[in-house]
Every structure is written in structure tokens, then in C-alpha cells.
Amino acid sequence: MAMTAEQATWFSEIFGRLVANVDQVLVGKTFVIRLGFTALISEGHLLLEDFPGTGKTSFARAMAQSVEGSSSRIQFTPDLLPGDITGVSIFDQRSAGFEFHHGPIFATIVLADEINRASPKTQAALLEVMEEGRVTVDGVSHPVGAPFMVIATQNPIEQAGTYRLPEAQLDRFIMKTSIGYPDHGSTLRILEGAETRAHDTVVPPIVTADTIVEMARLARTVHVDPTLNDYIARLVEATRSATEVRLGASVRGALALLRASKTLAAASGRHYVVPDDVKALVEPVLAHRLVIDAEAEFDGVTASSIMSQILLETPPPSERQGA
Fold it and tell me: Which of 50, 90, 284, 292 is deepest in the core (most CB within 10 A)?
């Protein structure tokens, strides 16, 4: 059953309250916050490539507090083992059996800090949970629950001793973005509240975790005109034919763009998707999935510039959209 206009209005109102709530902590970063909740409600995961001290941990904690969920932070280091993330089975002498001890992955919002500092084996363990939504230890599955989102971070500097995420693993993230430094006005607001440490800031819950699950269900019912499906397909195909690109976006990328566009439409109070929803999400959803030709990369070509050019060269549907 398709989403109704009344449901879209309700969805938009809740979404706006969630964004405003987190904006108390992540000052002046409304667009990034909207992307974060879009990823959460689209049942995806977020990759942040950013400098230290930009508020990544506070962002994850505030999102979890807003939905009455739990949050955990995993600091990725070269000696981190898969069991340190997922949990392990430990023998209990009293019961004469193995008991599973949950790892930090069992939370509503999980911050995987500097994911590229851990070994590929540990990275794979995290990405498996992201994809499957459960941990399997000794043949027993343990669901992580819903909603569930991983916010992974990468440091764009100090690449020594890191393990770059393979393209197949980057494809698992529905979006990639950065928080960036605040502008002058936002910095002043942060300094005015400097007597309160960031870790002590607690935002009030706006909705329950069950409400987020319901919003995710509703987002899937947003109407998408066939011409918009064609538009998304043409955008994805254009990434594969671009001369500077060695590997374009996959079908998973097209599906991610569709899911995120539905959520953004509902967040805007509409029960149908328009081309502007797709355009707003093309770069964060598709850019990190591209593998740029080495020579083009040496010449300064970036995935963002390629996506901007593709948007200019790919005309959107001209017909009026609606349900």
C-alpha cells in the first residue's frame, strides 16, 4: 500500500524534530544530520571521511539518544580482533556450557572509529554484520536488532599503517560524507557552550526505536514514477561509461539511491519522489563507489567532480511527478 499524504506529513514532522534535536550537538551541520537520519531510516550505513575533532562521536551518540536507542564506540586498531566487535562464546563452569557475551556491535548506533586502521579480517567481520544484521558464533545466530546503523569513520590524513577499504566493502555503505569544520557563527555557538563537555551533553529522546522501524516501513511505500527509475538507471550507467572511471556504480548503488530518495521525499513531506530528491543524494550515495583511473586521479579528478558532470549531462524527467 502506497504512502498517503497524511502519513508523509507525519513522517516529515518527526524527521524535522529528530534533525533539530541533533542540531543542538552538531551545530550548523543540518545537511549532514539529514543525511544521517536518511541513512538510518533507509536501513543503511554511513561512512564519514573526516578530520579528528569534528564531532563524529557526539553525532552518533546524539542520534542514538534521539531514538531512545543505545550507542557504542569501537576504536579500530591494528590489533583489534573480530571477536572484539561481535562478541565471543565463553565456557561457563556453573552451567557446563558455552555462553555468548555480546560485543559492542549490539547497539542501535555503532561508531566504528578509524575503520581503516584495523586488519582486513576485522573489517570484514564488521561489514558482515552490517550486511546480515546478525552475528553467527558457533553456528548460532544472534540478531543485532532494529534499527541498526554503523557510522564508520576514516581519517583522510595519516595514512601510514592503515588498510584501505576495498571497493566491494565501500559498496556496503549507503552513503559517504564528511562533517567538516563549523563556520564562524557555529564556532561561536560552540565556544559559548564550552563549559559543558561534549560527552556530558544529553539530548532528549524524540521517538522510540519502534517508531524508526515504522518510518522505515513507510519510506519503502513512497511512490516512484517509472520515469524516475529510468533517471536513476541512466545516472548509474553514466558512471560506468565515464572516461575517467575504471569501475562505475553497481546495481547495489542504484538500489541505494532509490531507497534514500524515497526516504528524503517523505522527510520533505511528500508521498512521491521528485528529481530533486535524486539529485540531492547522487554524490553522497554514488561517488564513493567509483574507482577513478590512476592517470585521471593524478590530474586532480575526483569522484565528486565526476558526479557533478554526470548530473549536468543527464537530463531529468520533464513530466510532472505525482502519485
Answer: 284
Can you say whether the dihedral through the CA atoms of 194, 198, 201, 204 is positive or negative?
positive
C-alpha torsion angle, residues 116, 121, 126, 128 (rounded to 10): 130
Respond yes or no on whether the N-terminal peptide bond of residue 147 is cis (omega within 30° of 0): yes
pLDDT tens-digit series, residues 214-238: 999 999 999 999 999 999 999 999 9
**In this structure, what C-alpha cell is assigned to residue 237?**
550507467
**Hey, which residues does 72 pair with through a beta bridge?**
110
**Taking the CB of residue 42, how many other CB atoms lie within 10 A of it?**
24
Q: Give me the architecture of the 14-212 domain, per CATH.
A: 3-Layer(aba) Sandwich (3.40)
Q: CATH 1.10.8.80 occupies which residues in the chain?
A: 222-323
For 245, phi then psi, to 5°, come to -105, 130
CATH code matching the domain that covers 222-323, chosen among 1.10.10.10, 1.10.8.80, 3.40.1410.10, 1.10.150.120: 1.10.8.80
Per-residue pLDDT tens over the stretch 136-146 = 887 788 899 88
- pLDDT tens figures, 272-304: 999 999 999 999 999 999 988 888 888 888 899
CA 152-304-223 angle, to 5 degrees, is: 75
- Going from the C-alpha of 40 to that of each of 108, 113, 132, 154, 322, the distances in angstroms are 10, 18, 16, 19, 25
- pTM equals 0.89
